[in-house]
């Protein structure tokens, strides 16, 4: 076959293969965009497990009429402009790929109104060339994205969708991670028109109300018994909650680790945590935790995986040891603390 340039829609669909696995990945990308836009209120409406429809409304900075088409095109981002920006990345997104990818495998409509623009506009792509249509619309300040019929034009991908119940469970889990990562954001999830979850906004300084949100996400069993961690060794910082060994769970369903605000499934971190727990853990139990690790963005590479699940730390050994120490200290202080209360 001769070499030829791929049509733009096909190129986008191929790229979509990396970011858009299922409805929950759409929710993740869209919520991250809303958070990057400074929103502190999100409403997510889902129909048929997200297979039929996902709609997300935010109160973020909006997208101006002139930029709507650009937002839907590939490699277009407002978040980085140079390699230096990438190395010190603060936003959740930066690839400029999500909206283009999603719109190439669904029917996407984007409606937005920046506060400084007097009316709202909406945009969607129709046709093979990804040409964008733009029309006036009604919308409060912020952005709504409406996605219908995911994978309608990519039957091979559609085949891999599971039941509506399973797909909804993945969306629910995605939002749990977001709820744990941003206590300052009010999040509502509706399914088939019914409110399924509501995570009200919580003050960052109030540990008690933070625990209440943790209870909503992870259950009161974990939230009530969890030990709070707060460890600092320049330039690293670890905070969050871990279950005391005897309260650790059989399932690995509460193992949340956030690196600079991003949820990660990172082998190095889970290894460090497991090692700290090792001598305390009962048979068939697994470490149970919600942990937040912060370090200077220059010391971590988030550009390893398109869905950004994995990171690469520049100083792996130091990171591993710090995490392990911090968790081990919290665990070992547990019985010691009660011993301290008993007079010698
Ligand atoms: P990325 O997030 O990597 O920049 P996306 O394709 O997800 O790429 O989004 C493209 C651009 O569209 C973003 O850089 C941002 O400027 C804009 N955008 C997307 N979603 C929103 C939103 N909810 N509110 C405001 N701007 C948005
Ligand atoms: Mg994005």
UniProtKB/TrEMBL annotation:
Signal peptide range: none
Limits of the DNA mismatch repair protein S5 domain: 214-332
One GO cellular component term noted in the UniProt record for this chain: mismatch repair complex
GO terms, molecular function: ATP binding; ATP hydrolysis activity; ATP-dependent DNA damage sensor activity; mismatched DNA binding
A single BP term in Gene Ontology: mismatch repair
Ranges in coiled-coil conformation: none
Annotated keywords: DNA damage, DNA repair
Task performed by this protein: This protein is involved in the repair of mismatches in DNA. It is required for dam-dependent methyl-directed DNA mismatch repair. May act as a 'molecular matchmaker', a protein that promotes the formation of a stable complex between two or more DNA-binding proteins in an ATP-dependent manner without itself being part of a final effector complex.
Family of the protein in this entry: Belongs to the DNA mismatch repair MutL/HexB family.
Protein name: DNA mismatch repair protein MutL
Gene: mutL
